[in-house]
Amino acid sequence: MILPVILCGGSGTRLWPLSRKALPKQFVPLIDGKSLLQLTLERVAALMPPQVDSRRALCVTAEAHRFLVAEVMRAAGVHGDLILEPVARNTAPAMALAALHAGADDLLLFCPADHHIPDVGGFAAMVTEGCAAAREGALVTFGVTPSFPSSAYGYIQKGPARHDGTYTVARFIEKPNASDAASLLLQGDVLWNAGVFLCRADVLLDAMQQHAPDILRSCRDAMDGVMRDGQFLRPEPKAFAACRAQSIDYSVMERYDGVVVFPFHGAWSDVGSWNAVAELTPADDQGNRIVGQGLALQAQATYIHAPARPVIALGTNDLFIIDTPDALLVAARSHAEEVRAVVAALEETQTPQANHHRRVARPWGWFDSVEAGARFQVKRIMVRPGAALSLQMHHHRAEHWVVVKGVAEVTRGEETFLLTENESTYIPIGKTHRLRNPGKTELELIEIQTGSYLGEDDIVRFDDQYGRHGADAQ
Questions:
Q1: What is the pLDDT of residues 179-201, one digit of tens each?
Q2: Residue 473 in this model has a pLDDT that exceeds 60
Q3: Residue 9's pLDDT is what?
Q4: 85: three-class secondary structure by DSSP
Q5: What is the pLDDT of residues 245-254, one digit of tens each?
Q6: With contact defined as beta carbons under 8 Å apart, do 115 and 264 qualify?
Q7: What is the pLDDT of residue 52?
Q8: What is the 3-state secondary structure (H, E, C) of 193-244?
Q9: Domain 2-264 classification at class level
């Protein structure tokens, strides 16, 4: 039986402003209203038994994204544990944590959370065919048959064919320049490195013991001190922080003798730039690609992402126009790989939009900061059925709540009462309070905050059903 391991790291800066550090690209609904993480989980679910209780996966992610991953797993109908990395340390440590948690004979399928592979059946067939080599002790990597000379991907050069449908690996090739990429394709023996791996847990651990023993030792120490909180597994922070950061390619794949490659002939994208995102949308006769409420007039090769309002491109050529409620990116297509520099520039000026969206996900739902000014802030809040905010109080702000949809159960000091649509209440400064949705439909309300300080850290928390602590525990 295969245990899928989904690697959910990544900061998401290359797809700014849609993807940001607080909401990396794997969580953004990019394709048919679904995130890349959900599509990945649904794809690996095709390898699992049809019974819902048997559809299990293991995710490795950051502490800050734990509730996002848990919610996407629920939406995909997949169960399982989440290993929460205290700090980011690249793919080699993340995979070591997963292998140490799994059983020695478990067959682990490592998949990035942010790749797009539309052929679910072809993907499942590829993995199934690669199982024989993995069970025999090979470390199987999957290479995509290249469709054009890309300088955005690494390559794998195939060696001689083996009896099980795989090939030995002649060499791994770093991302080439455009000229070298074209030369590689003419050779006819190279594949794109997809970053998908299949192996027994003990085989990976043995390979790391040979070629990255210090990484394995740090991860083993971290997992020896692991703490479980429901489905969340927290490795010991100091031990894991001492681990050096390195990719699995550098630490193991390029050095281990037991690596083989299995070709995949279907469509694949790592969705690593706005060029890649644009390719997911069909083009019109002028090469324009439109998502949402965009309109291209007398324009050519223009991509518009406009989910919330009309965005018009007139007479443009070779442009990306990415619109969000709080930030707009207009970029030449030739500069798609330089979006990270935009984020870095915004971070230098401490612009909040560099890393955070106006709408912020919470385990109980989300809030959208609609408007803010001197001594006031307006939020739109959605609370899922059965969910609740923490029991809390504020030293510097009062709050007015107006219910616009659903039913709210309000705790204010010693009293608890219900509010329905068009009803409101007032929470004075210093008053203990909690908001809960007791109904079976979503609760939406408008929150008006007033006071001398409106920061998220002005919260004293007394109880939280999600076990949260710190500034993210609203």
A1: 999 999 999 999 999 999 999 99
A2: no
A3: 83
A4: strand
A5: 999 999 999 9
A6: no
A7: 62
A8: EEEEEEEEHHHHHHHHHHHCHHHHHHHHHHHHCCEEECCEEECCHHHHHCCC
A9: alpha beta
Question: By the 8 A CB rule, do 239 and 222 touch?
Answer: yes
Whole-model pTM: value is 0.89
69-74 own/partner pairs: CB under 8 Å, 24+ apart: 69/8, 69/37, 70/231, 70/363, 71/361, 71/363, 72/27, 72/35, 72/37, 72/38, 72/41, 73/41
- pLDDT tens per residue, range 258-279: 999 999 999 999 998 999 999 9
Q: Cα–Cα distance between 473 and 328 in angstroms, integer?
A: 29
pLDDT in tens, 126-178: 999 999 999 999 999 999 999 999 888 999 999 999 998 899 999 999 999 98
- Name every residue whose Cβ is closer than 8 Å to that of residue 21 and which is 6 or more positions away in sequence: 11, 12, 13, 354, 355, 356
320, two tokens:
């990306």
Kindly list the distances between the CA atom of residue 203 and the CA atoms of 64, 93, 207, in Å, as whole numbers in the listed order: 31, 15, 6
Residue recorded with tokens 């390029």: 254
pLDDT tens string 119-131: 999 999 999 999 9
| Domain residue ranges in the chain | 2-264, 289-348, 359-463
Predicted pLDDT of residue 415: 97
The answer regarding whether domain 359-463 maps to CATH 3.40.50.300 reads no
Task: Pull the structure tokens for residue 353.
Answer: 């939009």
Residue (of 417, 364, 343) closest to 19 by Cα position: 343
SS3 179: helix
Helix 201-211 to helix 213-224 angle (10° resolution) is 130
Q: What are phi and psi of 471, to 5 degrees?
A: -70, -15
β-strand partners of 297: 314
Find, among 19, 69, 17, the residue nearest to 40 by Cα.
69
Q: What is the pLDDT of residue 471?
A: 46
Q: Which residues of 166-180 are buried (b: 16+ CB within 10 A; e: fewer)?
A: bbebeebbeebeeee
Structure tokens at 121: 């059946």
